[in-house]
Design a protein that fits this description.
Layout (H helix, E strand, L loop, with lengths): L17 H17 L1 H8 L5 H14 L6 H12 L12 H10 L1 H58 L3 H19 L3 H19 L2 E5 L8 E4 L9 E9 L5 E2 L1 E5 L4 E5 L2 E5 L1 H14 L6 E5 L7 E2 L7 E2 L3
Antiparallel strand pairs: 1-3, 1-8, 2-3, 3-4, 3-7, 5-6, 7-10, 8-9
Amino acid sequence: MSTVAAPTAAAGQTPAAPLDELMLAMDVVDTLRHEEGVALRELEQDGRDDNLKQRLRSIYESQGLEVSDRILDEGIRALRESRFTYTPTPPSFKRTLAGLWIRRGTIAKALALVVLLVVGWASWSVWQDQRAEQAQITAARELTETLPRQIQAAAEAALSEAQSDDARERVEQLRTDATAALSRSDAEAARVSVAALNRLTEALRETYVLRVVSREGEQSGVYRIPDVNTGARNYYLIVEAVKPDGSAISMPITNEENNRTEVVSKWGVRVPKATYDAVARDKMDDGIIQNNVLAEKRRGSLEPSYRVSVSGGAITKW
């Protein structure tokens, strides 16, 4: 309940200003509204103003305030006339415009955020379109310019190293594969062929010898009894690939017993029994294999050239 103290005019002093009386009347109306149930019943009955004034006076006196009859009458009359009561303006176009003007700051911020989001989305879309367009240009250039040059350069480098017919045939086959990939716009397949040509060039440049292993504690040869023919034996010499500087090379070797390819530094080469026995005799003389070079891989060739008769096939475990 809202209350406003009424200043008491002392003898010889100037009476309270009209504004103070107006404020007191407003306070009376406010008090009546808070006592809405009582006020409505009293107002609906003629001649009950005295009861209502008495009730209001009791309320103010309980707060230590003294309010004149004139102020109480003015408050009751104001309540009847609905004074000091806010009545909303009915909806209209002007009211809508006024509301928008009052909230112009909030609306401006919201519009700025919307504009920012729209501009950001538009910029991102343009950037995405530009990226896609640039990717298409790059892909087209790769198919028409970059990859053809790479294929040509890789094939020429490999051919310059090839010293055997099978090596040259391999180069031409990879070049044909790469060109076919370009014709069907398969850039990935073309890149794979270029990489294969580059690996082939490195392989053609490589030189090494296949040397029979002859070290203490290591086997130089083994034989195996095939499961399908227990009356036969397969003979293998254990070899390693050694570069001119003496370092060993690990190579991919397919094991003929399980058809699995493994990268190993030592493996067994299948040879006829006569070759196997000759190496065995060489080692039994003094524990050293004098003729330990089984084959030589020359620059420009794909495969090593064997100095002895071999049966083909290899094993990676024994």
